[in-house]
Amino acid sequence: MTAKNGGFKIQVLKFRVDLFTMKSFSFSRLACAALLLVSPWVHAEWGELIKDDEVFYGWDKDSVQNKHVSRLVWTITNLTSSIKLGSADYQSILTRYRINCKTDTFLKLSESIYERPDGKGKEVFAVDKPEWRPNDTAIRPGTHIALLKKQICAPTQTASAN
User: Fold this and answer.
1) Where are the beta strands (DSSP E) in the chain?
2) What confidence tens digit (pLDDT) does each residue in 85-106 have?
3) Is 0.70 surpassed by the pTM of this model?
């Protein structure tokens, strides 16, 4: 890095880039490259809901968002063995739920099915549903959704208020 006329210039390979007069397109390419370098260290911390020999249900504690009496949260389902879906196999499902803490109902907002555990590999199937859809489903006792509601609707839960 060299200073010239009060500005800083960075020499990348044979090209010089002035950070103060950089065009937005060049800056976006630089930002994308930085994101790719940092992305292996960015991952979710999955809290355990249910775990047995065949399946693991978890939830991302950092993804919880308060929306009045509802909570938005990402969950993961990891399977120990592959299951066939059409012509492809899958081992994990990432799902985004809206859980209404007051009425004990939930709505599945988004779901992505992946061929490898932890939401890795090729995305086999994805579906997104509108958040305003009024067809919430009752939470049945003893299910992983009931355990999730207990975790994220508890008064001691410190969810991010986004």
Assistant:
1) 2-4, 7-12, 15-18, 46-51, 55-60, 65-67, 70-85, 88-100, 105-116, 120-128, 137-138
2) 888 899 999 999 999 999 999 9
3) no
